[in-house]
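Hey,
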Amino acid sequence: MITKDMIIADIIRNYPKTLPVFQRYRLECYECQIADIETLEHGAGVHKISMDELLNALNSSLA
């Protein structure tokens, strides 16, 4: 299960199926160096994306 306090790069590395979700929300974090230290919550906040909506989409992609 993906949570808001997880590091973005860790999510993408451990759950590659999430990459299309990041792309759909225009979170191009997989190309960003800060992804190695940025939490999902921070990234969503910076890009003004609903945390609940993003978490639902990411976790649904794992099913």
